[in-house]
Design brief:
Distance between the termini: 46 Å
Oligomer: single chain
Helix content: 55-70%
Strand content: under 5%
Largest sheet: 2 strands, antiparallel
Length: 443
């Protein structure tokens, strides 16, 4: 009976059709709510608090396809959350004999928070898979292009030479940082169970000799971590999710930002494996994967900010702070999940144009190695004269259209120097190769 989802991702190509889209849909969230309810009854049955038949009956009824998500959404306005109408519908579906055991002792926030953790866990597992794909592809690029020289750019201008291998190794390092953060949060996602005000009092009233054993049994049923305390207004789990997801989106956004720059028509040092088309210009092959990742990276911090703001939650259960989390968290999961998918496709299909990179090393007529020349000429000419000469020759490279090497060759005092070696940008990449090797040792 689940209604067709109204949010199909028409305006969100970054996550539409991604694995994360299916794990964050209304039907997926509804199923997570039902999973939380079924696990609660099973946990109580495991401790002898409800009949085993109740656990079976609730589990059999807890199928999202049997419930009308649109009706639940509309009726949620009455109590401010969808758990209240869902409990009524689930109780009816379970039947008269076992219906009274549905949701027994819990509060709506217990179920909502637990469902959020289930949805988050299922989604970040997919994110981790795509981060692994991205990391492997970037590792291959870094190894293949360990010594592929290219212009290093600072403040948008050519600086000194670097290698594409080092750049790719840096991208991979960020991806691994994101992986580590996401994995740590995934492993710590807790169930939520505290009852009306976080005291577990209702469970004691229903016969639990040690009500603190119930959250442990509940978490075990769900595959989540048992919480030390009910966290209705202790929102560390949500804040941690916000942080790792926003970081992951930003880390992937760095890769996208570089690819967008390097794939410009007038640079063209890299291109996406399969660019997207234009509705008006048939010749274009737009870097669509990078564009979508960059868009996600720009949105993620604001969503995370809302979740961090909800840390300031009053009393034992808050009005507004908890409710403000649901949509931003889902959006953040979707954005990061979509960005991880797109980044994996981007990294796996990225084409590197080493010949163009080499050509661009000569755009400044040899000035890209002026730092090296300053160090190399100082022992021969003295520091002051070396600086004066290089400043003069830098001006002449542009006014005369000659390379720095040609101009240096005219200087009698420099005839004993190997100007070919000194002015070759590919021979001035410092420790880029060693740094790349070190970075690739990280697993």
């Amino acid at each position: 009976m689940t209604s067709a989802a109204s949010d199909t991702g028409l305006l969100a190509p970054g996550w539409a059709g991604s694995p994360a889209a299916s794990t964050t849909s209304d039907s997926a969230f509804l199923q997570a709510l039902l999973d939380a309810e079924a696990a609660l009854t099973r946990a109580q049955a495991s401790l002898g608090l409800v009949p085993d038949g109740a656990a079976t009956a609730v589990a059999e009824a807890a199928d999202a396809a049997r419930f009308d998500a649109r009706s639940l959404a509309e009726r949620a306005r009455g109590g401010g959350n969808p758990v209240i109408p869902l409990v009524a519908d689930l109780t009816k579906a379970v039947g008269e004999e076992y219906g009274p055991y549905v949701h027994r002792g819990a509060t709506s926030q217990d179920i909502m928070d637990t469902a959020m953790m289930l949805v988050a866990g299922r989604t970040v597992a997919l994110v981790l898979g795509d981060l692994a794909r991205t990391e492997r592809a970037l590792a291959r690029q870094a190894a293949e292009h360990r010594d592929t020289a290219m212009p290093g750019r600072t403040l948008s201008q050519h600086a000194v030479p670097t290698t594409f291998g080092l750049k790719a190794a840096g991208w991979r390092s960020l991806v691994l940082d994101a992986r580590d953060r996401v994995q740590a949060v995934r492993d710590s996602l807790p169930a939520q169970l505290g009852g009306a005000a976080g005291t577990l009092a209702a469970f004691s009233a229903y016969g639990a000799q040690d009500a603190t054993a119930l959250p442990v049994a509940y978490a075990r049923e769900l595959g989540l971590r048992a919480p030390l305390l009910p966290w209705h207004t202790l929102r560390t789990p949500v804040a941690d999710l916000a942080g790792c997801l926003a970081f992951a989106a930003g880390a992937l956004g760095k890769v996208a930002a570089d690819v967008l720059t390097l794939s410009r028509t007038e640079i063209a040092e890299v291109t996406e494996g399969s660019g997207g088309g234009s509705s008006a210009m048939p010749h274009k092959a737009n870097p669509v994967r990078s564009t979508l990742v960059a868009a996600a990276a720009r949105r993620a911090p604001q969503l995370a900010a809302t979740l961090y703001a909800s840390l300031a939650a009053e009393d034992e259960r808050p009005a507004g702070a908890w409710h403000a989390e649901w949509e931003p968290l889902r959006d953040l999961l979707r954005l990061t999940g979509g960005a991880a998918r797109d980044a994996a496709e981007l990294a796996e299909g990225l084409r590197v144009h080493a010949d163009v990179m080499r050509e661009h090393l000569g755009l400044t007529h040899g000035l890209i190695v002026s730092e090296r020349l300053s160090a190399g000429l100082t022992p021969v000419l003295g520091r002051a004269r070396a600086k004066e000469l290089l400043t003069e020759l830098a001006r002449r490279t542009y006014t005369e259209g000659r390379s720095l090497r040609e101009l240096l060759a005219d200087e009698p005092d420099l005839r004993d120097l190997d100007l070919g070696e000194l002015t070759d940008p590919a021979r001035y990449t410092g420790s880029a190769g060693a740094l790349t090797d070190r970075a690739l040792e990280r697993r």
